[in-house]
Specification:
By secondary structure, the chain is of the alpha+beta class. It has three domains: about 200 residues, Histidine kinase-like ATPase, C-terminal domain (Heat Shock Protein 90), CATH 3.30.565; about 70 residues, Orthogonal Bundle (Helicase, Ruva Protein, domain 3); about 230 residues, Ribosomal Protein S5, domain 2, CATH 3.30.230.10. About 40% of the residues lie in helices and about 15% in strands. It is built from 15 helices and 14 strands. The strands form two sheets. An eight-stranded mixed sheet has the order 5-4-3-6-2-1-7-8. Strands 9, 10, 11, 12, 13 and 14 form a six-stranded mixed sheet that branches. Helix 4 runs antiparallel to helix 6, helix 10 crosses helix 11 and helix 13 runs parallel beside helix 14.
């Protein structure tokens, strides 16, 4: 007893004692304990996230190889809380040496350092899904991949060693696979399958809408198959990689670039390592910073780097190039809406490219109004970033804020203060960017940058004016028809009275009255349409400009 008391005494620990307790934390260990950061915080969301990461990788791989994507997704219910997911694509495949690292090593990939529009960014998506499957079922992930019709397929079963963040290959063999090229991944994991707005079903439906060039074949746990056929045979424009823009640099990033550059002078560094900087602009930046242009970048102190940042802010530099983005386009966005949503009016808007923190981005908005959509409920909102659906954290997203702060009453919808509008409407908002500012690693909502919110509002207002023209015209035509029907109801009596007063033939008078109604309807409809396009458009544009100014 005395010994136990001695062991648990309040003796002061030395620095050496504390040092023995310190050890390096693997990134895989960190995410193992904090998997909610990656979107695996509950079983329903985990099932969706695992499928989402695999489908995103397949779409990216196909587009980079200029292959029209055809992706198969299958969910098999193994037990009440365990599912097997199988995702297969027709992409370029993966070389054998890269398979273990891509699927079983966190923070490994080719996208993190590239500035261009792409779905993935951090290199933790599919490997995080592999880790989650391993943690919840203990079973390895099975991958088969083939790169050429003349070559054999490689089959592997993998585990992720969370202590070292390295892959462990359980099985490595050659297999016969009838596919010419592609990749197939199979994993068992804990999950729960439910239908609804945040389900796998909805994610794949929205993925088909925002990727009109892809075909998706989906088999759910009830063995029901859904085929989302592509709406176009045209592949998206391939985005090109760009260099960092000076306006997007922060002090620490600039200091790191100066230290690692291969350029021999500061002026050549500004020209070669940054975008939109020519010799004249580089000299102007150096003059504004009071730094010799031929100074070696590696000799730049932190004070020099700070002077350079301030000089860049005070120098007029061209906006970033737009080749790095690949928007959907108004034509294809409208085609996708028509393919998947039953409505009576469709429109799509693609805004010009804008810049935040030196990063170019582009906003697209699509509207589908009427049809069989519910009239008394809130509008249906579909949020996307770089062609990926965002199903969670809608209230925390900049897209939602942009919508609730837009005056939808001017466009014929019902809306309470600071709330979503109500009516038979689906709103699509898509952001394309070289670096999407997500609020967390799980990539579920856009951060509230003022530049982004302003651009979304401008796109919504432009689409809203088109909707207003249609809605007002529709109501005008309905009122005209109601008046015409009322007059038509009493037309025989009017013709009879006129016949008795004038002595003219009753049938002839009735026919003339009917012709008069038709001509009057046409003239009124043309007049109303012209006035709607003029007066209402001008009035709502003025209202929109006032809102943006505020």
């Amino acid at each position: 007893m005395a010994k136990a008391n001695k062991d648990s005494s309040n003796e002061r620990l030395t620095a050496e004692d504390l040092a023995k307790k310190q050890r390096e934390i693997s990134v895989a260990e960190f995410f193992e304990k904090n998997r909610h950061l990656l979107g695996f915080d509950n079983t329903r969301k985990a099932l969706l996230t695992a499928i989402k990461e695999a489908v995103d990788n397949s779409l990216d791989a196909c587009e980079e190889s200029k292959i029209l994507p055809e992706i198969s997704v299958e969910i098999i219910e193994m037990s009440e809380s365990r599912f097997r997911i199988i995702i297969e694509d027709n992409g370029p495949g993966i070389v054998k040496e890269q398979i273990p690292k891509i699927f079983a090593k966190l923070l490994y990939g080719s996208k993190f350092h590239r500035l261009k529009q792409q779905r993935g960014q951090q290199g933790i998506g599919i490997s995080a899904a592999v880790m989650y499957a391993q943690l919840t079922t203990g079973r390895p992930t099975k991958i088969i991949s083939k790169t050429d019709p003349k070559k054999q397929a490689h089959y592997m079963e993998l585990h992720l060693n969370t202590q070292t963040n390295n892959p462990e290959i359980m099985v490595d063999e050659i297999k016969e696979w009838k596919k010419d090229h592609g990749t197939r991944i199979e994993m068992d994991l804990e999950g729960s399958y439910l239908k609804g707005n945040q389900s796998v079903d909805e994610y794949l439906r929205q993925t088909a809408i925002i990727n009109p060039h892809a075909t998706i074949i989906y088999t759910n746990p009830k063995a029901e198959q859904f085929i989302y056929a592509r709406a176009t045979e045209a592949l998206p424009k391939e985005p090109l990689e760009i260099k960092p823009h000076p306006y997007g640099l922060e002090l620490g990033i600039l200091a790191k670039m100066l230290k690692n550059t291969e350029s021999r002078t500061l002026q050549s560094f500004l020209i070669n390592d940054l975008s939109r900087v020519g010799s004249g602009t580089a000299k102007e930046i150096c003059d504004n910073a009071l730094i010799y242009p031929k100074k070696k970048p590696q000799d730049m102190s932190m004070q020099d780097a700070e002077k350079l940042i301030n000089a860049i802010k005070n120098t007029k530099i061209m906006a970033p190039t737009t080749d790095c983005l690949s928007p959907i386009g108004e034509e294809f966005l409208e085609k996708s809406l028509k393919k998947e949503i039953n409505a009576e009016f469709y429109c799509a808007i693609t805004r010009p490219i804008f810049v935040y923190r030196g990063n170019p981005f582009q906003i697209e908005v699509g509207l589908a109004y009427g049809g069989n959509q519910p009239k008394e409920e809130s509008v249906s909102l579909l949020r996307f970033a770089n062609r990926v659906p965002l199903l969670y954290q809608q209230g925390a997203c900049a897209i939602t804020k942009s919508i609730v702060t837009t005056n939808w009453k001017a466009y014929g919808l019902q809306q309470s203060n600071n709330s979503m509008p109500s009516g038979p409407l689906t709103i699509i908002v898509h952001m394309s960017s070289v670096w999407v500012p997500f609020t967390s690693e799980s990539k579920e909502a856009l951060a509230h940058y003022p530049e982004i919110i302003k651009e979304i509002k401008l796109a919504l207002q432009e689409a809203g004016r088109k909707l207003q023209t249609y809605v007002h015209k529709k109501y005008k035509v309905q009122n005209q028809l109601e008046r015409a029907n009322l007059f038509e109801k009493y037309m025989p009596e009017v013709a009879d009275s006129l016949s008795r007063l004038t002595g003219d033939n009753k049938e002839l008078l009735l026919k003339k009255l009917q012709d008069m109604i038709k001509k009057d309807e046409i003239q009124r409809e043309i007049h109303d349409l012209e006035s709607l396009k003029g007066e209402d458009d001008e009035r709502t544009k003025k209202q929109d400009d006032e809102e943006v100014e505020e």
